[in-house]
Design brief:
This protein is of the alpha+beta class. The protein binds FE2/S2 (inorganic) cluster.
Length: 327
Amino acid sequence: MNYEIIDCIDAGTKFCPCHLAESNECILCSQLQGESFCDCKNWKGTCIFQELNWNNNKATTERENYVAVIVKKNLIAKGLIKFVIKISHELCKQLIKPGSYIFMRCLKTSPYFDVPISVMECDLEKDTVSVIIEIEGIKTKKINDLNEKDSLVVRGPFWNGVLGLKNINRCVDKNVLLIARGIGQAPVIPVLKKLHNLNNNIQLVLDKGKYKDSFIQDYLKKYPCNVIEINTMDEGKMSSDLVTLLKDSIENRSIEHVHCSGPDVLIQEVIREINSRTTTSCCNNAKMCCGQGICGACTTRFEGHVVKRLCKLQTDPEYIFEGRRLI
Ligand code: FES
């Protein structure tokens, strides 16, 4: 029988216990949900209840703001910019895993302008991160006003940009399939790197989306994989080409894991098509504002009055769409 195994991305880190624990809303600890018994949903090596007690029943440290400098700014396509940003070595080290992201804004703007951006690559020798930004709204337009050598505010590290992380970490010496569409090419790079380092045989379905060219060609040389260029969506639905490819990959090519980095509508259809025949992971498309379980921007509602905070919750992608309510 399938059942949801959940985890909190921050449990066991220096950011736990957080404000959720302080307010009896902890994702994992039953006692910090108002119960009188101990029935923690996932053990990360520390007792969150005890940690909160030791910290005088107060939340521990929040993510800090850092001043960073833009080292490089490249226009990749109309409305698509690559930034290379110099940050501290300490922060850089913490942004290396798949799913890492930061909040960015100009020095002159208020924290309301914080925009969450996936980390595409970390360079630990130069202490830089590379990010790709789609210039879409007022927050990203302000960032686009910045140029090389300008300073900006970076808040981090955050890690929940990918759901199903445990499935990625368990892929060793396997046949895996990655699907990346449009801006989803950027967050797929740390996943590709991780799976490459774990000696997996990787097929990458690459869909440029609305852009004329792919912007990850250099990374594909660094982490070689079998690239298949097709349209993954057709009139708002998964394309028949991708349906055929998925069927063939699972039935004839022994694919054991599928990662999808694209819009929710594509992820949902890919999961439906796979129908639990492989493990899955996907990018986390929830709208993030605080990133730390406070503001409620990322909350999604499910049957049975279940509320999931997607900035904190780690779960398999299946459980992000199953039983989801629109009200
Ligand atoms: S982004 Fe604020 S609660 Fe999740």
